[in-house]
Amino acid sequence: MHYFLKYISQLILAPGPGWEDISKAGSDVKWLLLYGFYPLMALTVLSSLMDFCYHDITVGQFFHGALVIVAKYFLTYYFAVFMYSMFLHKYIVGTQNEKRNSTFVLYILSILMLIEFLANFFPTDVPLIQLFPLYLVIIIWRGARYMAVVEAKMWHFIGLSVAAMILPTYLIPSLFNAMFPN
Known about the structure:
Elements: H1 2-13, H2 15-25, H3 29-47, H4 51-54, H5 59-87, H6 98-119, H7 127-142, H8 154-179
Helix pairs in contact: 1-2, 3-5, 3-6, 5-6, 5-8, 6-7, 7-8
C-alpha cells in the first residue's frame, strides 16, 4: 500500500509527472486492487466510525453508511471500466489497453476515496474538501497523455471520465438511500 499511496500523493501534488511514474512502474491491476484500492476502501469505511463521535447515529445507520461506501466505489469501478471499454477507443491513438484503463480508474477513484476519508474526520462539511473533486478534472486532464488521448478529443475524454467516475460516486448513494432508507 506504501507505493500505492506514494503514487496517489504524486498525482495530487504533480499530476503530469505522477502519471509518467505510474506508466513507468507498470503495476499489475490485481495488485493495485488487492493491496491499494480495497484496503483504502476499508480505511474509508472505518473512518466513517467518526460519525459516532459527531452525530447521533445507530449501529444500523453506520452499517448502512458502510454498505453505501463499499457499493459506491465497487460499482463505480466496474461501471467506469465498462464505459472506457465501450467508448474510449474513439478518443485514443492506437489500440485500447484494458490494463491502462483499469489503472487510470483505480487511481482516480482512490483519490475520491481519500477525499471521503479526510471528510469523515470533520464534524461538518468543509467546503474546501467538498470542492476537491473539481481538482480531479485537472488530474484527469493531465492523465490524458498516459491514456494516449488525441488532443482534439481531450474534452470528450474528460467528459467521459467525469460521467464514468465522478458522477456515479454522487448518484449511487442517492439511489441507494432512496431504495433502502435508514
